[in-house]
Design a protein that fits this description.
The chain is of the alpha/beta class. Among the domains are: 78 residues, LysM domain (Membrane-bound Lytic Murein Transglycosylase D, Chain A, Roll), CATH 3.10.350; 66 residues, LysM domain (Membrane-bound Lytic Murein Transglycosylase D, Chain A); 144 residues, Response regulator (Rossmann fold); 132 residues, Rossmann fold. Helices cover 36% and strands 17% of the residues. It has 21 helices and 24 strands. It has an eight-stranded mixed β-sheet with strand order 11-8-12-13-14-22-21-20, with helices on both faces. It has a seven-stranded mixed β-sheet with strand order 16-15-17-18-19-23-24. A three-stranded antiparallel β-sheet has the order 1-2-3. Helix 12 runs parallel beside helix 21.
C-alpha cells in the first residue's frame, strides 16, 4: 500500500511538471539569460525544476524568496539551460536572403536600431536570441528581418521597449530598478535623482560613461525607499499624498517635441460663465501664439473647466488617460483643488510641473508646484529706502484696514511714527471760530522734514478724499509761497481694485504701491499686447489677461530648457512684471520672490522696481 501511494505521488509530480509550459518571456540580466515565470497555484519548486530542466537549488539561488515556498502570482527568474542541438547553422546565403545585417557602433541601443529600420523591437529580439538587448557591443552583428523593415512606428517600438524594461523590473533585485533613458536625461540628472554619484552610476552599468549615454538605453539604478512608497499610494487621500511629497527631477524636452499642456480654470460656476478666467484663457492663447512665433515650439493645449468641483478633478486624475499624459499643468486656481492634482504630478514617471497662476498656497508643499503670486513674506523687501530718514504719519479714517495696519507696524519695527485722525466735513458745514477743520491736512505738512504718509482707511470714497486733501493742502501752501515738505504716500495694494479714484491724484501725491502685478500700459511691450488682444477679442485686456499671457510665456519655453534646473533664480519679465522663482527647501513650492514696487512720480511718469 505504501509503495502504491509513493507511486501515485510521483505520478502527480510528473503530471504537474509536464503541465507547466515554459515561459516564452526571456530577458538578459548582467549577461545571463533568464525565463520570466509567473507562478501559478499548485506549482512547486520540484515541478518548476523539472519543467525548465534545472535544479531546485539553482532556482532558489536566483530567487531567495522561493526558499520559503512559492506564492501564486510571484515572479521568478529561471536561468535558461543551454540545450545541445544537432540542428545545423543556417548558411550565410540563406541568412542574407531573409535578413539584412547591422553592425553595432559605439553607443547604439537596440531601441535606436529598431527606429533606424522602423522594425518592431520584439522582432529583433526574436531573430537574435543570443544577444543581450540591454548591452550591445561595438561590431556586434544584428540580424534585421527584411520583411519587418518599415512595418513599425515609433510609438510601437517605444511600447515594446518599455514592456521589455517592465519584464526586467518584475525580477529586479530588491532596492534596484531598470530604467529606459529618455530625452533630456543626463548622467548628472540621473545620478542626482537617484541619490548616487556619477561614478556609482557608471559602476552599476558596466563602466558606461556620460558621453555614451543614449536615449533608449536601459540602465540599472537604485530605487529610493521614498520612491517605492510613492508608487504604492493612490489619489484617494490627497492630504496623505501631500505629506509624502518628495524631491523630484524635472526633464527638459527636445526642441522638436510637441508639448502637452492642460489648463485647469473655473470657467463657470454652475451655469454662469466667469469673465475673469475667460480673460486669463484669452491671454494664455496670445502667449502661446507668441511662443510659437518666437521659439517655434509646438503646443497641444487642452482646456478643462473645473467648475470648482473637486469630484470632477478626482475623476480626471483617475480616469482621463489623456490628462495623465500631460507634461505641463497650469492651474487649478484654488488650493483644495491643487491638493488633488499635485500627487498625480509627483507620481508620474517624468514629474509634471504644476503652476498655481493666482493664489498664494498656504499649506500644500510640493517640489512640482510653482506659484506665480509672490511670497507675502517678501512684500516689503523693497520698502527700506522709503522709510529711511522719513517722518512717518499714519492717517486714520472712520473705517480702517487693520490688516494693512499690522503689516505696516511689523515693517516699521522700532521706528517712531505719529497718528492723525481725518474726518470729512462737507463744505456747507460751518465750523466754530477756533475749531480746526478735521478735513484739512495742512497741519501734517507743517514741518521741514521728508514725510511718508500711510493712509489706513479701507473705504474707497474716504481714500479718495484723503488723497485729494493732501494734494489740496500742498497746493494751497505753495500758492501762499509757504515752504512745503517733500512727501510721498505709501499706498495699499487693495487700491488697485478701486474703480472710482482719479488716478491723477496718485501722481500729485507721489504714491508708491507694492503689488503682485502691474501692467504699465505706456510700455511698448504692454501696448503691443493690448493691440493684439483688442484685435483678437474686441476688448481691453484685464489683469487676468496679462497673467494668462505671462503664464504661457514663462512656463512653455521653460519646459524646453530652464525646467531642468527648477527655474531657480532665473528672471522672467514678459510684460514688465518680474518673476523670479526660489525654493525654501528641497520638497517645498517654487515661489515667485518679486513684488512690484510701483512709483507714481510728480512728473506724471511711472517707474517700476
Amino acid at each position: 500500500m505504501k509503495r502504491l501511494c509513493t507511486a501515485l505521488l510521483m505520478l502527480c509530480w510528473l503530471c504537474t511538471a509536464s503541465a507547466i509550459e515554459r515561459s516564452k518571456t526571456i530577458v538578459y540580466i548582467n549577461g545571463a539569460k533568464y525565463y520570466i515565470h509567473a507562478v501559478a497555484a499548485g506549482e512547486t519548486l520540484y515541478s518548476l525544476a523539472k519543467a525548465y530542466d534545472v535544479s531546485e537549488e539553482l532556482i532558489t539561488h536566483h530567487n531567495r524568496s522561493a526558499a520559503d515556498g512559492l506564492k501564486a502570482g510571484e515572479t521568478l527568474k529561471i536561468p535558461v539551460a543551454e540545450q545541445p542541438t544537432n540542428k545545423p547553422e543556417p548558411s550565410e546565403r540563406k541568412l542574407n536572403k531573409t535578413f539584412s545585417s547591422h553592425y553595432v557602433v559605439k553607443g547604439e541601443t537596440l531601441y535606436g536600431i529598431a527606429r533606424i529600420y522602423e522594425i518592431a523591437v520584439q522582432t529583433i529580439i526574436e531573430d537574435n536570441p543570443d544577444i543581450d538587448p540591454t548591452h550591445l557591443s561595438p561590431g556586434q552583428r544584428i540580424l534585421i528581418r527584411k520583411k519587418g523593415i518599415g512595418k513599425s512606428n515609433a510609438a510601437e517600438s517605444e511600447a515594446q521597449w518599455s514592456a521589455y524594461n517592465e519584464r526586467l523590473n518584475s525580477v529586479a533585485p530588491e532596492g534596484e530598478q531598470y530604467y529606459v533613458v529618455q530625452k533630456g536625461d543626463t548622467f548628472y540628472s540621473l545620478a542626482r535623482r537617484h541619490g548616487i554619484s556619477e561614478e556609482e552610476l557608471s559602476t552599476l552599468n558596466n563602466g558606461l560613461q556620460a558621453a555614451d549615454l543614449k536615449v533608449g538605453a536601459i540602465l540599472r539604478l537604485p530605487q529610493p525607499e521614498e520612491e517605492q512608497t510613492a508608487t504604492e499610494t493612490t489619489v484617494e487621500n490627497p492630504i496623505q499624498e501631500v505629506a509624502a511629497s518628495r524631491e523630484v527631477e524635472f526633464r527638459a524636452l527636445c526642441n522638436c517635441d510637441p508639448l502637452r499642456v492642460s489648463l485647469l480654470l473655473p470657467m463657470s460656476n454652475g451655469r454662469m460663465p466667469n469673465p475673469n478666467y475667460m480673460d486669463f484663457y484669452e491671454g494664455f492663447l496670445l502667449g502661446l501664439d507668441s511662443v510659437r512665433t518666437r521659439y517655434g515650439h509646438s503646443v497641444d493645449l487642452t482646456l478643462y473647466d473645473t467648475k470648482r468641483d473637486t469630484g470632477y478633478l478626482k475623476g480626471l486624475c483617475e480616469q482621463d488617460a489623456a490628462f495623465r499624459m500631460t507634461q505641463l499643468i497650469i492651474g487649478p486656481v484654488y488650493e483644495e483643488e491643487l491638493q488633488i492634482i499635485v500627487p498625480l504630478a509627483e507620481q508620474n514617471t517624468i514629474p509634471t510641473p504644476v503652476v498655481s497662476p493666482l493664489a498664494h498656497i498656504e499649506e500644500l508643499q510640493s517640489d512640482v508646484l510653482f506659484q506665480m503670486a509672490p511670497d507675502p513674506a517678501k512684500k516689503y523687501d523693497k520698502a527700506q529706502s522709503l522709510l529711511d530718514g522719513k517722518r512717518i504719519t499714519f492717517i486714520y479714517g472712520e473705517s480702517n484696514d487693520r490688516a494693512f495696519e499690522e503689516e505696516l507696524l511689523a515693517l516699521l519695527g522700532e521706528r517712531p511714527h505719529t497718528k492723525h485722525e481725518y474726518r470729512y466735513v462737507h463744505p456747507s458745514v460751518k465750523l466754530k471760530e477756533d475749531e480746526l477743520n478735521p478735513s484739512d491736512l495742512s497741519p501734517i505738512l507743517d514741518n521741514e522734514e521728508e514725510n511718508l504718509y500711510f493712509i489706513l482707511s479701507d473705504n474707497e470714497i474716504e481714500v479718495d478724499r484723503i488723497l485729494a486733501a493732501l494734494a489740496s493742502a500742498d497746493t494751497n501752501l505753495r500758492a501762499r509761497s509757504l515752504r512745503t515738505p517733500k512727501y510721498s504716500v505709501f499706498g495699499n495694494s487693495r487700491w488697485n481694485r478701486y474703480t472710482n479714484i482719479d488716478r491723477t491724484i496718485f501722481f500729485k501725491n507721489r504714491v508708491v504701491f507694492f503689488t503682485t502685478y502691474h501692467a504699465k500700459r505706456d510700455a511698448e511691450v504692454v501696448a503691443d499686447f493690448d493691440r493684439a488682444y483688442i484685435r483678437a477679442f474686441g476688448s481691453l485686456p484685464s489683469l487676468y489677461s496679462y497673467r494668462g499671457y505671462d503664464a504661457a510665456m514663462i512656463f512653455v519655453p521653460a519646459m524646453f530648457n530652464d525646467i531642468e534646473y527648477d527655474m531657480e533664480d532665473r528672471r522672467y519679465e514678459p510684460l514688465k512684471t518680474l518673476y523670479r522663482f526660489k525654493q525654501a527647501a528641497p520638497t517645498a513650492n517654487h515661489v515667485n520672490q518679486d513684488w512690484m514696487r510701483v512709483n507714481y512720480n510728480s512728473d506724471f511718469t511711472i517707474t517700476i522696481e
